[in-house]
Design brief:
Layout: H1 9-13, E1 18-23, E2 28-32, E3 53-55, H2 73-83, H3 94-129, H4 133-136, H5 156-163, H6 165-186, H7 218-249, H8 254-280, H9 295-316, H10 333-357, H11 371-398, H12 416-423, H13 425-451, H14 466-479, H15 485-510, H16 514-517, H17 523-556, H18 558-573, H19 587-605, E4 609-614, H20 616-627, H21 630-633, E5 636-641, H22 645-652, H23 654-657, H24 659-668, E6 671-677, E7 697-701, H25 729-742
Parallel strand pairs: 4-5, 5-6, 6-7
Antiparallel strand pairs: 1-2, 2-3
Length: 770
C-alpha cells in the first residue's frame, strides 16, 4: 500500500504489465499479469508469495478542481478537533461533553460561512453599493437595482431578496457536494465478522477503530448535513428579517411588524430544533448505524426553506419611503459569533484538561491533551480569515480606489470587526516568523551536533567528506522539525486567542476601523494602525488566493503533493463526525475495501497475509487490521515503513493510536515490523517492544546507504528520506522473515472453487494475494 502522493501499480509491483483484480478507477487491487490467476496454479507459488498492490490515490487526488476543497479547511480542522481528545476511558462523562462542544463549534463555522456570504451579497452589494449612487455608477450589472432608476427591484427589501440567492446557492452547493461524497465514501459497508469470535483484549488496549460501525458514517453525516443546511438557510432568513424589522420599526405598517415577529419566532423554533439535532447526533460505533432518521430531521431543511420563502415575500413587500443607508442591520453579529466561538474553545480546553487527567498514557501526547482545543481555535481563526478576506477584497473592488471603512469611501464597507481582525494578522505573522527563526536556529544547532556522529555510521574505509557530512546532518536536523510542531501550534493558538480577543474588544469599544479609531492618537500610533489595517486587509485577501493556489499545485506537482499532502491526508483520514461539509473521509472507502479483501481471501483459501504499508498507507493498513475478526487478524503480519502511526497519530490522536491501542494491535496479530530513518520527516519508530523482548522497530536505517564513493557505489548514494524504503536491503530481509514466520502454518493454496471445511464459500470479490 502506497502513501502520500500515490504510487502506480506498475511501480509498486515492479512490472509494467499489471491487471486489475478487484475495484474501480477510484481504488482497486492490482497484480502482475503473470500472477493474475495464482490461485488456479498453487504449485507454482509454493514458498513464494504473490504480491498485490492496493492503489487508493484517486480517493484524495484527482483533477485541479479538487483544490477548491481547500476552502473547506476550517471545517476539516474542526473535525480534527473531535478526534484529538485525550485517551481517557470511553465511559468518562466528559467524553460526551467534549464531543458536543466540538459539534456546536462546527455548527458556528457553518453559520459564519453563511453570514460571510450574506455580507458580500446582501450587505456590501444589495444594501450599501446598490443603494449609493456613487458606488453603483459605472456598474451596468447593478443598474436595475439602483434607486435612481425607480425600478421594481430598486426597493431595498427586494434588492435583499434577490441577493439572498447567492448565499442560498453557496449553501446548496455545500449540501450537494456533501451528499455526493457521502454516497461515494460513507456508504461502503464493513464486512461481517465471523461468528463465535470474542474479544479477550484488555480493556485498556481496545480502540474504537476496531468497532464494527466505526467506518460507516452514512446516517450520522446525513443527520448533520440536515442540521447544518438548516442552520445556513436560517442564517440567511435571520439577516433578511433583521433588515426588514428595522424598516417596520421606523413607522412601518403594523401588519408587517406582526408578520416579522411571527417569522422571527419560527426562525427561533427551527434554530432550537437544529441545536437539538446536533446535540443528539453522536457517533454510534458498536454496529453500523442503519436506523432511519426521525421525521423532524428529514423535514428540518424543507421547513427552513419554507420559512425562508415566507421571509423573502415579507422582505420584498412594498414599503414606501424605505431606503438603505449605512451598514446592513445585524452586521454586528460577526462579533457575537466570534465571542461565542471563543467561549466554546475555552470550555473545550477545560473539558480536555479534565479528560487528560484521567488519560491512561500521556507521556508523549502532543500539547498535553490540549491539541483539540488548539486546532479548534485555529479552525475559527482560518474561518475568520477566509470570510473576512473575501469581504474585504470584494468591498475594495466595489468602492474603486477608496479604502473600505475609511471616511472618504463611498460605502461603509464590511463590519468593523473584520477590519480589526485584519489588523492583527501582521502581528500574528511576526510571532509565526519568530517561531520559524527559532526553528531554523535549532536546525543549525542539531546539524552541527549530528555532523560529528555521521561518519561513524559508515564503513571507516570510506573517505570522509565534509560537504557530504553536512548535507546528511542537515537532512536529519530538518526531519526532526516535525517533532517541534506542537510548539508552533501552541504559540500560534495562544497569540490568536489574545489578538482575537483584542480585536473584538477594540471593535466594540470604538465602533470604527483601527485607522479611524486612532485619528486623535500620536502620529506613530495612527500610522501603525493604518498600516496594519491596510496590510492586514491585503493579507486576508491574499490568504484566500494562496490557499487555492497551493491546493492546485498540490494536485498537479508530485513534490508539492508530498509536502502538503501529509497534512491534507491526515485531516481527511478521519470520518466526518463534527462537520458534514468537511472534505470527505477517504478511509471510509479504503478501510472497508482492505477489510473485505483480507477477510474474503483468508476465508476462501485459508491463507496468510503480510500486509505492508508506506506512510499513510501504514495507517490504513493498521485501521483495516483492527476491523478484522480475531481469527483473521491472527493470520496477518504487518510491515510498516515511513509510518506516522506513533509520531503523528499516536501523539495527536492518543485515544485511538496511543501506546495501549498499538500494543493491543500487535498482540492480536501474527507479527509486526516497522522500518524508519532519522532522515524521514514523517515516519518514525513505533516505540513498542514485542512479547519476548523483541522490538517492533527495525532501525534507524542508514540513509544514504553509502557515505562516499566505493567500488560498489562509484556515484554518491541518494538521501532517500521518506521515500523508497524498498531500496534498502533491510526491507527485503525483514519481509522475508515475516513470510518465513508465516510459512510453517501455511497450507497449500486450494483452487478457487474450494472453501474451508465448515465454512460456506463466499461470493467472489476477485482474486487476491497472500
Amino acid at each position: 500500500m502506497h502513501g502520500v502522493g500515490g504510487t502506480t501499480a506498475q511501480e509498486m509491483l515492479g512490472d509494467p504489465r499489471v491487471q486489475l483484480i478487484t475495484g474501480d478507477d477510484t481504488a482497486a487491487c492490482y497484480r502482475r499479469t503473470d500472477d493474475a490467476d495464482a490461485e488456479q496454479r498453487p504449485d507454482d507459488y509454493r514458498g513464494e508469495p504473490v504480491r498485490e498492490a492496493y492503489c487508493w490515490s484517486n480517493l484524495t487526488s484527482g483533477n485541479g478542481a479538487r483544490a477548491l476543497w481547500l476552502i473547506l479547511v476550517p471545517f476539516m480542522v474542526a473535525n480534527l478537533a473531535h478526534w484529538m481528545r485525550p485517551a481517557a476511558p470511553s465511559e468518562h462523562p466528559a467524553q460526551r461533553i467534549y464531543d458536543l462542544l466540538v459539534r456546536i463549534l462546527a455548527l458556528t463555522l457553518t453559520v459564519l460561512l453563511a453570514a460571510a456570504a450574506c455580507e458580500v451579497a446582501l450587505d456590501l452589494t444589495a444594501w450599501q453599493c446598490a443603494g449609493t449612487t456613487v458606488c453603483a455608477a459605472g456598474k451596468s450589472w447593478m443598474g436595475f437595482l439602483s434607486p435612481d432608476n425607480s425600478g421594481w427591484w430598486s426597493a431595498p427589501g427586494r434588492r435583499l431578496a434577490l441577493a439572498s440567492m447567492v448565499p442560498l446557492l453557496v449553501i446548496g452547493f455545500l449540501w450537494g457536494l456533501s451528499r455526493r461524497t457521502w454516497s461515494a465514501y460513507e456508504s461502503a459497508s464493513p464486512p461481517p465478522r465471523l461468528p463465535g469470535t470474542s474479544r479477550d483484549t484488555p480493556v485498556a488496549e481496545r480502540t474504537a477503530l476496531s468497532r464494527e460501525g466505526f467506518w460507516y458514517g452514512r446516517r450520522l453525516v446525513a443527520r448533520l448535513r440536515a442540521a447544518h443546511t438548516t442552520a445556513g438557510v436560517l442564517t440567511v432568513a435571520a439577516v433578511l428579517l433583521a433588515a426588514a424589522a428595522k424598516a417596520d420599526g421606523d413607522g412601518g405598517h403594523p401588519v408587517l411588524a406582526v408578520t416579522g415577529r411571527a417569522l422571527t419566532a419560527l426562525v427561533i423554533v427551527l434554530a432550537a430544533a437544529t441545536l437539538i439535532v446536533v446535540w443528539r447526533t453522536a457517533r454510534s460505533e458498536g454496529a453500523p448505524d442503519v436506523s432511519s432518521d426521525h421525521l423532524v430531521v428529514r423535514t428540518l431543511p424543507f421547513a427552513s426553506l419554507a420559512v425562508l420563502g415566507l421571509t423573502l415575500v415579507y422582505t420584498g413587500w412594498a414599503r414606501p419611503g424605505a431606503r438603505s443607508h449605512g451598514p446592513l442591520p445585524g452586521a454586528d453579529a460577526f462579533g457575537g459569533i466570534a465571542v461565542f466561538q471563543g467561549v466554546l474553545v475555552l470550555a473545550l480546553a477545560v473539558t480536555a484538561w479534565v479528560l487528560q487527567r484521567a488519560a491512561r498514557d500521556d507521556a508523549r501526547t502532543a500539547l498535553r491533551g490540549m491539541g483539540g482545543p488548539a486546532v479548534a481555535l485555529l479552525a475559527c481563526a482560518v474561518g475568520g480569515v477566509l470570510s473576512g478576506g473575501v469581504a474585504q477584497r470584494f468591498a475594495d473592488w466595489l468602492d474603486g480606489g477608496a479604502t473600505p471603512g475609511q471616511a472618504h469611501a463611498p460605502i461603509p464597507g464590511p463590519p468593523v470587526l473584520l477590519s480589526w481582525q485584519a489588523s492583527v494578522i501582521p502581528a500574528l505573522l511576526v510571532v509565526v516568523a519568530a517561531v520559524a527563526v527559532l526553528a531554523a536556529v535549532r536546525v543549525v544547532i542539531v546539524r552541527n551536533r549530528v555532523a560529528k556522529d555521521v561518519p561513524g555510521l559508515y564503513d571507516p574505509r570510506e573517505q570522509p567528506d565534509a560537504s557530504r557530512t553536512k548535507r546528511i546532518a542537515a537532512t536529519i536536523a530538518g526531519a526532526g522539525l516535525t517533532d517541534s510542531a506542537p510548539v508552533l501550534i501552541a504559540a500560534t493558538s495562544a497569540v490568536t486567542l489574545v489578538l482575537g480577543a483584542g480585536a473584538v474588544i477594540g471593535a466594540w469599544l470604538t465602533g470604527r476601523a483601527p485607522g479611524r479609531a486612532t485619528e486623535g492618537a500620536p502620529p506613530v500610533v495612527h500610522a501603525a494602525a493604518e498600516t496594519a489595517e491596510s496590510l492586514g486587509s491585503w493579507l486576508m485577501g491574499a490568504g484566500v488566493i494562496l490557499l487555492i493556489t497551493m491546493g492546485r499545485r498540490a494536485y498537479r506537482d508530485h513534490s508539492a503533493r508530498r509536502t502538503i499532502g501529509i497534512l491534507w491526508d491526515v485531516g481527511t483520514f478521519w470520518p466526518r463526525a463534527a462537520h458534514p461539509f468537511a472534505p470527505p473521509c477517504y478511509a471510509e472507502r479504503a478501510v472497508p475495501d482492505l477489510t473485505w479483501r483480507m477477510a474474503t481471501w483468508t476465508e476462501r483459501f485459508d491463507g496468510r497475509l503480510v500486509l505492508s504499508g508506506h506512510s499513510q498507507g501504514s495507517v490504513l493498513a493498521a485501521a483495516a487490521v483492527w476491523q478484522l475478526d480475531l481469527v483473521t487478524r491472527s493470520r496477518v503480519a504487518l510491515l510498516t515503513y515511513g509510518s506516522p502511526l506513533e509520531r503523528l497519530y499516536g501523539r495527536w490522536f492518543p485515544a485511538f493510536f496511543g501506546p495501549p491501542a498499538l500494543t493491543g494491535l500487535h498482540r492480536e496479530m501474527d507479527d509486526w515490523r516497522n522500518l524508519w530513518r532519522f532522515t524521514d520527516p514523517i515516519g518514525g519508530p513505533i516505540r513498542l517492544t514485542c512479547e519476548g523482548g523483541r522490538r517492533i522497530d527495525q532501525g534507524p536505517l542508514r540513509d544514504p546507504l553509502s557515505f562516499g564513493r566505493t567500488l560498489q557505489n562509484p556515484l554518491p548514494a541518494q538521501i532517500l528520506g521518506h521515500g523508497d524504503y524498498q531500496a534498502d536491503p533491510v526491507f527485503g530481509t525483514v519481509r522475508a522473515e515475516l513470510i518465513a514466520r508465516l510459512s510453517p502454518d501455511l497450507p497449500g493454496q486450494r483452487p478457487a472453487d474450494e472453501s474451508p471445511k465448515g465454512r460456506p464459500a463466499q461470493g467472489s470479490s476477485g482474486k487476491s494475494s497472500g
